[in-house]
Amino acid sequence: xxxxxxxxxxxxGQKLAKKLAARGELDGKxxxxxxxxxxxxxxxxxAPFSTRYTTCDISDRASVDATIPADVDVIYLLAxxxxxxxxxxxxxxxxxxxxxxINVLERARALGTKPKLVFTSSIAVFGGEVPQxxxxxxxxxxxxxxxxxxxxxxxxxxxxSRKGFIDGRGFRLPTISVRPGAPNRAASGFMSSIxxxxxxxxxxxxxxxxDFPHFYLSPRQCVENLVTAAEIDGAxxxxxxxxxxxxxxxxxxxxxxxxxxxxxxxxxxxxxxxxQPEIQTILDGWRLDLRPQKxxxxxxxxxESFEDNIRYFLEDDLPxx
Length: 321
What we know:
Elements: E1 2-6, H1 11-23, E2 25-26, E3 29-30, E4 33-38, E5 50-55, H2 61-67, E6 74-77, H3 83-88, H4 90-111, E7 116-122, H5 145-162, E8 167-173, E9 175-176, H6 190-196, E10 204-205, E11 213-217, H7 219-231, E12 242-244, E13 248-251, H8 252-263, E14 271-272, H9 277-283, H10 293-297, H11 306-317
Parallel strand pairs: 1-4, 1-6, 4-5, 6-7, 7-8, 8-12, 9-11, 10-14
Antiparallel strand pairs: 2-3, 11-13
Helix pairs in contact: 1-7, 4-5, 8-11
């Protein structure tokens, strides 16, 4: 089994790579080679099989062609320009999120081997005047450029799969929290920072009130789901290849209560509550009542509680806590 993770330097990509290294196999087949590719040189991991690390600019077809080997079996396409960044820089967002996806799909098509391709989309494809709850058959109506770009990616994955060029499957990720590491430029970034920083004794600001609800998943369960996603038989998807990954809806207040239940009262005291209108404008276009029945039926799972999300962060990303 030869696996490629495009976006392998990012948080999810690194955790996925480590999970695959620990398993040593995917879909019942031993992993012979794993390649991590990103715009910057990805961090190395320990693995019992051959690993390769490379830089890749997915907006450059030649770079993509050099990155995706002819014998690849599974491609994880995780690389993206995230929400606030894509909204600020319209051209760059489309360059990476749309044209970059096209380049990856065209390289996969040119191979003629129909590799499996796992594409990470976003719940930002929902919004507008479409009535809630959102289920697997709801219309997609993104209200920000990032959502539009991810929706285009979904349609491409569907069509390339229908034509038999790839064995594609796409999953709209909930907001992933608690994310370790440095903040990124996602509008939802504060949904990790208000836990990550206080759990380390640092202040963090929340730009929305405690009643703000959203749809969440832990990094640990996200990675478990991405492994499962590559193991599902293509025929099981039917005529719809892209869907929402399971998650849970909690309010900010409920999440802070969960952190307090696990870590005590001190971290919550480090949260400030200063509005950020530029973030609120993006969040106002998001929707939250999602019913991901199809992905759940295919074996993907949500976290049981946000207390689990906090525990996973402490166990996986803050050793000794």
